[in-house]
């Protein structure tokens, strides 16, 4: 129905966001109802509303996960959506509005027994007391004895949320006996603009503090220990790993910075780097320089320091984060290393920042990364691992 008063002053809010908690991801009109998807503590809630904005009910989901593509027409009595989680490969579901039930419409065939694993969400305090969410996924029955090989991943930047999704590589990691931890740091989009602002520009150090606090939580709660803990991240997440590696070299057993932004004084001089000033500021100004020099991974490597085992990955044709970042960081770290842990770099050829990389190249790289972790974290593989 066309409104007689289309001016913004006549608009009425039917479904309001709750700043700092739930973030509205999307809205569709199906079955003459508003079908809304929300990001609630970094995972999806699907909520139905009447046309007048009255809350009807939430749609039950298989587990903690992420929903996308809730689709259908206004007159339809059914809708379809995709669901994924750390233990759930992306699966298409059909939702029946009459029964309120979801059924599998199409599911991929994956050689992974999800029933053996579970995901929980924990909240831990960062350095300034801010509550940070983190997902932990592992084999059921895991003992908190400090001996679990742990792969701690995060991104923390550019207003991008890190929500649950299935990764065949991480499924293999868990089959190896590993714990997979994903921390939702400030700088991402998990709680809206305020959360993003708290992790960029002059506040960028908060992101590193959040990640360091995640590692400390995992150790304190005996999920793992320093010799068994690896930190990982790519691109902006590679910067994260590089910064935390240089700030707390004593805290980690291994570091995996991938295609990272390591030179925070010259990042803006190459390819698309100028566009990252929204998060990193302008190092050609005094303000920007004074902020970035404090955490730039390349410029905070200290000779004579015992650094953890580090495996840098990049590609010779990366035109987003040019490989020179990784080259300089690796060479400087190798020269500064006072301990016995190795500092290695893997340079893929005929490849870029990651998108579009062939399945073959992805498998080869992941095999090298996991081989490195098996050696450096002293992982004993389960007897049945790799056997059909």
Number of helices: 8
Average pLDDT over all residues? 95
CATH superfamily of the largest domain: Alpha/Beta hydrolase fold, catalytic domain
Strand content: 25-35%
How do the SSEs run, as a string of H and E?
EEEEEEEEEEEHEHHEHEHHEHEH
Radius of gyration: 22 Å
- Structurally, the number of domains stands at 2
Q: Tell me the distance between the termini.
A: 60 Å
CATH fold node name of the largest domain:
Rossmann fold
Percent helix, as a range, is: 10-25%
Number of strands: 16
Largest sheet, in brief, is:
8 strands, mixed
Give me a quick take on this structure:
By secondary structure, this protein is α/β, with parallel strands linked by helices. The protein has two domains: 8-106; 114-376, Rossmann fold (3-Layer(aba) Sandwich), CATH 3.40.50. The protein has eight helices and 16 strands.
Structure in words:
- By secondary structure, the chain is of the alpha/beta class.
- It folds into two domains: 8-106; 114-376, Alpha/Beta hydrolase fold, catalytic domain (Rossmann fold), CATH 3.40.50.
- It is 21% helix and 28% strand.
- The chain has helices at residues 168-175, 193-197, 205-220, 236-247, 277-280, 286-292, 324-336, 359-376, and strands spanning 22-30, 33-40, 43-49, 55-59, 66-71, 78-85, 88-96, 101-106, 117-125, 131-139, 150-153, 179-183, 229-234, 254-258, 309-315, 343-348.
- A hairpin with a 5-residue loop joins strand 9 (117-125) and strand 10 (131-139).
- Helix 3 packs across helix 4.
- The radius of gyration is 22 Å and the shape is globular.
- The N and C termini lie far apart (60 Å).
- The model has no long low-confidence stretch (mean pLDDT 95).
């Amino acid at each position: 129905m066309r409104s007689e008063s289309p001016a913004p002053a006549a608009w009425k809010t039917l479904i309001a966001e709750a700043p700092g908690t739930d973030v509205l991801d999307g809205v569709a009109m199906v079955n003459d109802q508003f079908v809304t998807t929300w990001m609630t503590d970094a995972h999806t809630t699907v909520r139905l509303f009447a046309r007048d904005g009255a809350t009807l009910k939430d749609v039950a989901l298989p587990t903690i996960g992420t929903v996308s593509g809730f689709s259908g027409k206004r007159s339809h009595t059914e809708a379809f959506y995709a669901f994924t989680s750390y233990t759930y490969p992306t699966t298409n579901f059909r939702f029946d509005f009459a029964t309120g039930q979801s059924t599998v419409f199409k599911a991929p065939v994956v050689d992974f027994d999800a029933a053996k694993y579970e995901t929980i969400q924990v909240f831990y305090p960062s350095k300034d007391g801010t509550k940070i969410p983190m997902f932990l996924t592992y084999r059921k029955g895991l003992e908190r004895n400090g001996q679990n090989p742990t792969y701690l991943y995060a991104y923390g930047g550019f207003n991008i949320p890190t929500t649950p999704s299935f990764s065949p590589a991480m499924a293999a990691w868990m089959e190896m006996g590993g714990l997979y931890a994903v921390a939702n740091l400030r700088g991402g989009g998990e709680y809206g603009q305020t959360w993003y602002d708290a992790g960029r520009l002059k506040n960028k150090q908060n992101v590193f503090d959040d990640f360091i606090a995640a590692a400390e939580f995992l150790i304190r709660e005996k999920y793992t220990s320093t010799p068994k803990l690896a930190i990982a991240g790519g691109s902006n997440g590679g910067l994260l790993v590089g910064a935390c590696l240089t700030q707390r070299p004593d805290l980690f057993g291994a570091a995996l910075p991938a295609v990272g932004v390591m030179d925070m004084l010259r990042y803006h001089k190459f390819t698309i780097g100028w566009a990252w000033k929204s998060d990193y500021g302008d190092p050609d100004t005094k303000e920007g320089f004074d902020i970035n020099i404090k955490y730039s991974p390349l410029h905070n490597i200290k000779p004579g320091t015992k650094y953890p085992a580090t495996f840098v990955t990049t590609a010779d044709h990366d035109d987003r984060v040019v490989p020179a970042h990784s080259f300089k960081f690796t060479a400087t770290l190798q020269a500064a290393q006072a301990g016995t842990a190795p500092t290695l770099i893997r340079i893929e050829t005929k490849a870029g920042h990651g998108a579009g990389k062939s399945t073959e190249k992805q498998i080869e790289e992941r095999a090298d990364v996991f081989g490195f972790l098996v050696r450096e974290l002293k992982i004993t593989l389960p007897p049945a691992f790799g056997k059909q």
